[in-house]
Amino acid sequence: MSQFRSLAGVLRGGGLWMLGRNAPGRGCSSRVTQLSPSVLSSSYVEEMYYAWLEDPRSVHESWDAYFRNAQASSPVGEAEERRPSMLLQGRAMSQTPAMSLKVVEDHLAVHNLIRAYQIRGHHVAQLDPLGILTADIDSFVPSDLITTIDKLVTPDDASQTLGFYGLDESDLDKTFQLPSTTFIGGHETTLPLREIIHRLETSYCGHIGMEFMFINNVEQCQWIRQKFETPGIMKFTDREKRTLLARLVRSTRFEDFLARKWSSEKRFGLEGCEVLIPALKMIIDRSSAAGIESVIIGMPHRGRLNVLANVVRKDLDQIFCQFDPKLEAADEGSGDVKYHLGMYHERINRETDKNITLSLMANPSHLEAVDPVVQGKTKAEQFYRGDTEGKKVMSILMHGDAAFAGQGVVYETFHLSELPSYTTLGTIHVVVNNQIGFTTDPRMARSSPYPTDVARVVNAPIFHVNADDPEAVMYVCRVAAEWRSTFNKDVVIDLVCYRRFGHNEMDEPMFTQPLMYKQIRKQEHVLKKYADKLISEGVVTLQEFEEEVAKYDKICEEAYTASKDEKILHIRHWLDSPWPNFFTAEGEPKCMSYPPTGLTDEVLKHIGEAASSVPLQDFSIHSGVSRILRGRADMVSKRTVDWALGEYMAFGSLLKDGIHVRLSGQDVERGTFSHRHHVLHDQEVDKRFCIPLNHLSPDQAPYTVCNSSLSEYGVLGFELGFAMASPNALVCWEAQFGDFHNTAQCIIDQFISSGQAKWVRNNGIVLLLPHGMEGMGPEHSSARPERFLQMSKDDPDRYPEFTGDFEVQQLYDCNWIVVNCSTPANYFHVLRRQILLPFRKPLIIFTPKSLLRLPEARSSFDEMTTGTKFRRIIPDEGPASKNPGKVKRVIFCTGKVYYELAKERKQLKLEDTVAVVRLEQISPFPFDLIKAEVELYDNAEMIWCQEEHKNMGYYDYVRPRFLTVLSNKKPVWYVGRDPAAAPATGNKFTHLAELKRFMDTAFDLSAFEGRSF
Question: Domains in the chain, please, with CATH?
Answer without folding.
Answer: 2-229 (no CATH), 238-574 (3.40.50.970), 601-771+820-863 (3.40.50.12470), 879-1002 (3.40.50.11610)
